[in-house]
Design a protein that fits this description.
By secondary structure, this protein is α/β, with parallel strands linked by helices. The protein has 24 helices and 20 strands. The strands form four sheets. The protein has a six-stranded parallel sheet with strand order 3-2-4-5-7-6, sandwiched between helices. A six-stranded parallel sheet has the order 11-10-9-12-13-14, sandwiched between helices. The protein has a six-stranded parallel sheet with strand order 16-15-17-18-20-19, with helices on both faces. It is globular. The C terminus is likely disordered.
Length: about 550
């Protein structure tokens, strides 16, 4: 006879999970200790939210299940933001929280997770695709099978199980767990309707979202664009779906985009949308009278398909990579052979700003030249994120990770750590801001303690820059956006055990990044940037009148 915790740990190992992330506590102790016994490496975080982000970074890097856990009560509620972030980014993460023993229900308990105080199973329901309290050991197998089939199914995303202490230690004679097998999900009848729409369109446009990277469909995107000679723009989160210098790439659109990308949106009569919800961050400059006549949208999630634009919509359900591979394999040979021609290169960029102090745009414009080809760049939310969307030159498709949709500050710090744990040989870099760093920057110590040499670039302009610039433009006020006592990121990083550098000029940054790459240990580079630099977010405004 083995315990529920045994079966859980064995299942995770059989799924190929190698690392789990969280903060230990009494109510989750049996499950966590069994994971360690079964060979999973435990990465203890400094805040549960960061551990959840790390599990998401691990899932993104590996394509496998990420695992984050916390104790009951406030440990669990601290995971909620990370769960919602994983849901917004379609990342398969299993969130595990503890719970008082079922036999003790109704007795006031420290860090209560029951319906008498903080019902975690209920709280996680809207932030995940599935959330359940496991009330009996003999129900565990059925519930875990269901949770895994959802997390790793066609519409990937997070799930949550709340495990009472006594259920974790309950012994079972048998517990059958079925490891989900990936299955292609194709919309063949709908795919057959694409070619006539492409032939009818005069100005088609591919809008590549972050779903392209989630599906690993970069080559298929490139082949589709080249076969039909269709220009490509990327959403803020879709940055890196195609290389920055591909002749058919016309740059990012929306917030953080260049004017040309928005002009393309307003001039096209057919959108081919790959893995994007078409949020306000993408369509902020699209005029209502310029909605395209036709829309083709490939997405596993139908929630927003056909509901954002005033366009005739063809929804292709399922995985982007599987559907594009099928579509491309069915094209006439005469059409595919015609795609071997040359394409005229297009210059979509604009001049860099001329500032008295260090320009973040100038740093990002050169940064990819300083990094090895095999790297992953995680970008935090804030004005620095949209500077990166506009200026960073992605050479390796899929290497740029940015969430402009749920947009929670500090997520990139944990995600970079989780990705590095999954791929220790790959160079992992995180761009974050001083506001984000003051929220979750203590995770630097997690990376130091576990020898996960991520390079953290902290943009320090001593203010909540995106909020400040937006409020100042739209309301004339900047309440709560200035740090009266600004942080010293170098001292903070050194106190957590990291190697730290400070850069106030572009040559200083280049030298610091070169040194950090050679060190192969956790490094923090503080960028003291010009506080007056305008982020590329000005066209998304608020009117309080």
């Amino acid at each position: 006879m083995r315990t529920v915790a045994d079966y859980l740990a064995e299942t995770l190992r059989n799924l190929g999970v190698t690392h789990v992330f969280g903060i230990i506590g009494k109510s989750i102790c049996p499950a966590l200790l069994k994971m360690v016994d079964y060979g999973l490496e435990f990465i203890p975080g400094r805040h549960e939210a960061s551990s959840g982000f790390a599990a998401s970074g691990y899932a993104l890097q590996t394509g496998r299940l990420g695992v984050a856990f916390a104790t009951s009560g406030p440990g669990g509620t601290n995971l909620l933001t990370a769960a919602a972030h994983a849901k917004a980014n379609n990342l398969p993460v299993l969130f595990l929280t503890g719970h008082q023993s079922i036999q003790e229900l109704g007795i006031p308990q420290c860090q209560d997770s029951s319906s008498y105080l903080a019902d975690l199973a209920e709280m996680f329901r809207p932030a995940t695709l599935f959330s359940k309290l496991v009330e009996r050991g003999d129900h565990f197998g059925t519930i875990l099978n269901h949770a895994l089939s959802i997390a790793l199914g066609p519409n990937k995303g997070p799930v949550h199980l709340c495990l009472p202490f006594d259920v974790q230690t309950e012994q079972l004679p048998i517990c059958r767990i079925v490891i989900p097998e990936p299955e292609p999900l194709l919309s063949i009848s709908s795919l057959n309707r694409i070619l006539p729409l492409l032939h009818q369109a005069e100005r088609p446009l591919i809008i590549a979202g972050k779903g392209v990277t989630r599906a690993g469909a970069h080559e298929e995107l490139k082949q589709l664009a080249e076969t039909f000679n269709i220009p490509v723009v990327t959403t803020p989160g879709g940055k890196g779906a195609i290389t920055w210098d591909h002749p058919l790439y016309h740059g990012p659109c929306g917030v953080g985009g260049f004017p040309n990308g928005d002009e393309m949106l307003n001039q096209s009569d057919l959108y081919i949308v790959l893995g994007s919800r078409l949020s306000d961050m993408t369509l902020c400059n699209l005029k209502p009278h310029n909605h395209p006549a036709q829309l083709i949208q490939i997405d596993t999630d139908p929630t927003f398909v056909g509901k954002i634009l005033q366009s005739q919509t063809l929804h292709i359900t399922g995985d982007i990579k599987d559907n594009l591979q099928y579509l491309l394999s069915t094209l006439p040979s005469s059409l595919t052979s015609a795609s071997t021609g040359t394409f005229e290169s297009f210059e979509y960029q604009t001049p860099l700003p001329d500032l008295p102090h260090l320009s973040l745009a100038a740093v990002l414009d050169q940064m990819s030249e300083l990094l090895p080809y095999d790297h992953k760049l995680f970008v935090d939310d804030g004005s620095h994120g949209f500077h990166a969307v506009q200026r960073y030159k992605v050479k390796k498709p899929g290497s740029f990770i940015f969430d402009a949709y749920f947009a929670c500050m500090g997520n990139a710090i944990g995600m970079a750590i989780g990705a590095k744990a999954a791929s220790p040989e790959e160079t992992v870099v995180c761009i974050t801001g001083d506001g984000c760093f003051m929220m979750l920057g203590t995770e630097i110590n997690t990376a130091v303690c576990k020898d996960l040499p991520v390079i953290f670039i902290v943009v320090n302009n001593k203010q909540l820059d995106m909020a400040l610039k937006g409020m100042e433009k739209t309301t004339g006020r900047i309440d709560g956006t200035l740090f009266e006592v600004p942080m010293d990121a170098v001292k903070f990083a050194e106190s957590l055990g990291a190697k730290a550098f400070r850069a106030e000029t572009l040559p200083q940054f280049s030298s610091a990044l070169e040194a950090a790459l050679e060190l192969n240990q956790v490094a923090v580079i503080e960028l003291l940037t010009d506080r007056d630099e305008i982020p590329p977010t000005a066209h998304r405004v608020v009117n309080l009148d």
